[in-house]
Write a structure and sequence with these properties.
520 residues, 24 strands
């Protein structure tokens, strides 16, 4: 299709998909004063709980956006940050595991993850930005040129199409992304793993769970999850059996008829496991499930999508506002696709570990043996701080300093370090705020003896107390330059710090380079 007429709308960034990832991208770009239009094919936000866990890193992002307190207020208390295993909802636990960074505060972050429902999160994200949202509007075609993207959008209610010309498109349109398919981008991974059903219901289960708080109760037949602190439940189980009486399914799984169950809604869905072969095609960038579909075990799917747009949006802002070259966006795929591959491996491992628990218990039941309470992961399931906080990037948007990475299990162990490519460590400052609270829509230069930075780049200079110099690996005349996404761009153990030179290199050299590297 050729562009023969003027488009109906012009916008710097078009976001496709109104789930948590697309809405977070909209809020982040709003902070950068980058105008956006978000279109979502469904007429309203999803009424299903879906994603359940917001990890500590995502809460750090929401802390920056100013919505973390509201999310926490509407979430479950932190004692719900665990999973429990039992033969049925009405029987005692035979095992339990806490979710690290959710069940209790951790020294490595000023934030705390929460257990909440996606349908509670999304309205908060909608209110976090003022840019336009159009529900019931579906992207049906797009043409990518060197200078723009021409998108054809269908107004599903009016059955009419219109055209939007965008500088860039963020495709956050789900695991079955139509944009990914239109661009011919393939995927790598197992693909469809299982068919599932989520049954949302009302029932008073307090006699069995009131003194056993958890974000999920895993049984042999499926998992029960509390949806809201004030009530409502969901039962997630294997599906694909065709029409059935959903109330009977729930009652059988509960193991008792001494409770009134009212089914509210049902959703059948497929567990997908795949990573896109590339996260960008010219001016179109994939994020969230469109870029990687992660099995739900461990609660990493939505969170890695939020990490995607946290990485992407500052780069988009730099290009749109002119202080960075367009090739800076090449580092998005270089940095985030390796993270997606590793996360897919971790989620698959989590699913296998959970299945081992169920199989072991079934064998014990068949043999008439009591539960032994042993877990196959030695308290390491949900001990994911290495995966959550320890992501490190290697790309043209990072200037290495020759230091060695910390020696730690990259999945389960996190070692705070201000090494280039790593997340800036959380350190408490004299006013009671965190070093992470000093980050925002700008680069941040931490130094004991800060000096002004000249140039077109947005930079804030922050004094670093002397007691934190060792933790950051610098001396009195050293400095740490942190990117807007919280990852260290460069570090000087001693002065002088060539901050302007590094910023020029990151935003200009990266613009001309697709240097090999990645994230882990």
């Amino acid at each position: 299709m050729l562009e023969t007429t003027a488009p109906d709308l012009d916008v710097p960034v078009l976001i496709v998909g109104g789930g948590p990832v697309g809405l977070t991208a909209r809020a982040l770009l709003d902070r950068w004063n980058v105008p956006t239009l978000l279109v979502e094919r469904y007429p309203e936000l999803s009424p299903f709980p879906r994603s359940r866990l917001i990890n500590v890193r995502s809460m750090e992002v929401f802390r920056q956006l100013g919505v973390a307190a509201e999310i926490t207020a509407r979430a479950f208390p932190r004692e719900y940050g665990r999973i429990r295993f039992s033969d049925g909802m009405t029987t005692p636990d035979y095992a339990t595991a806490a979710m690290e960074g959710v069940n209790a505060p951790i020294a490595e972050s000023p934030a705390l993850g929460v257990v909440t429902s996606q349908d509670r999160l999304e309205p908060i994200l909608v209110a976090a930005a003022d840019s336009e949202l159009r529900f019931g509007h579906e992207l049906v075609d797009l043409v990518v040129s060197d200078s723009s993207v021409l998108a054809t959008v269908l107004d599903r209610a009016g059955d009419a199409t219109y055209q939007v010309r965008a500088g860039y498109v963020v495709a956050a349109d789900g695991a079955n992304s139509s944009i990914r398919q239109l661009l011919g981008i393939g995927t790598t991974g197992p693909g469809a793993l299982s068919e599932n059903v989520t049954i949302v219901f009302d029932a008073d289960l307090s006699p069995w769970w009131g003194d056993r708080p958890a974000g999920a109760y895993a049984t042999a037949g499926g998992a029960f999850v509390p949806v809201y602190p004030e009530g409502t439940w969901a039962f997630v189980a294997p599906g694909g059996d065709g029409p059935t009486e959903w109330r009977d399914v729930v009652v059988r799984a509960l193991g008792t008829t001494d409770v009134e169950v009212q089914v509210l809604r049902v959703q059948e869905w497929t567990t997908m496991a795949q990573v896109a072969d590339r996260f960008a095609d010219g001016r179109v960038l994939l994020a969230g499930d469109a870029a990687h579909a992660i099995p739900p075990a461990g609660g990493m799917g939505m969170n890695i999508g939020i990490g995607d747009v946290h990485n992407l949006c500052w780069k988009l802002a730099g290009v749109v506002q002119g202080w960075a070259g367009p090739g800076l966006l090449d580092t998005y795929d270089v940095e985030r696709r390796p993270v997606a591959r590793r996360t897919l491996e971790q989620a698959t491992e989590n699913a296998q570990l959970m299945w081992q628990v169920v199989l072991r218990r079934r064998e014990q039941l068949d043999a008439g043996l009591p539960a032994d309470g042993q877990l196959p992961w030695s308290e390491r399931y949900f001990a994911q701080l290495g995966q959550v906080l320890g992501v490190a990037y290697e790309s043209a948007a990072v200037r290495p300093d020759g230091s060695a990475p910390p020696s730690a299990d990259p999945a389960t162990e996190y070692v705070p370090v201000a090494r280039p490519g790593h997340r800036m460590p959380h350190l408490w400052l004299p006013d009671g705020s965190s070093t992470l609270d000093r980050l925002g829509p700008w680069f941040t230069l931490f130094a004991a003896e800060p000096a002004a930075v000249d140039g077109p780049w947005p930079v804030h200079v922050e004094p670093l107390p002397a007691e934190h110099l060792d933790a950051c690996g610098i001396g009195v005349q050293g400095a740490v330059l942190v990117r807007p996404d919280g990852h260290v761009a460069a570090r000087w153990s001693e002065g002088p710090a060539d901050v302007e030179g590094v910023l020029a290199g990151i935003t200009d050299d990266a613009a001309r380079s697709s240097a090999a590297g990645g994230g882990r």
